[in-house]
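job 3f2a | input accepted
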Amino acid sequence: MFEGPFREGEEQATTLEEINGVVTPRSFQMFVQWVCLGRVVFRGCAPDVAITTAIEFARLADMCRITGMESLMAEHIKAIILANPAPEDSKWDDWRAPDTNTHCLTSQHITSAVALPEGHPVRAILAAATVEGRLRRHNYKFEREASRVPEFSVDLLKAVRATIESITIEYMQREPGSEQSVKIFVVKIENTLSSYHVIWHLISSQVQRILNHAKGQR
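job 3f2a | predicted structure (218 res):
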């Protein structure tokens, strides 16, 4: 903004008008902190408001071509999501609802974040948070956004693929006549925001076949 042959560059000043979802008193305060101090002080507020503010700040920084805070905002949003899960529900396995990671996310968060550039960490973390709900239930919380917002659809597909690719299954079985190895079943998960429940949903049938086969070899 302050570089190049523009008035802002010549005067080293600019005027920002309030823009819904981008330039707000909250996002501007964070913007000033980042530009002047190189850090941001997160104020205590409701989880959904805190996420809204982080997205607004990310969009304002992008509009002003200020970089370096993208991953920080994504990690801040991730921390809020993990600290504010949906209430336990007895109708689900281990009382964990499919919308556990999206309890404090709203449609506005999704539609506002897609205005950020493709590949932005904030977009990626929001998509990753919705994977569990997408895979574990038919009436997905963000079904409308997934079908009507192309940018979010792409982010969601990437997040689902990343979750699946983060699964590693290792299984070793003792060969007949061998005394060196025992049956081992290991599932490794690298995508920490997509819970164990997502992974189990994806591979439960395969796991059962392996275990049944192992029992048959005893």
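job 3f2a | Residues 7-166 form one domain.
job 3f2a | closed
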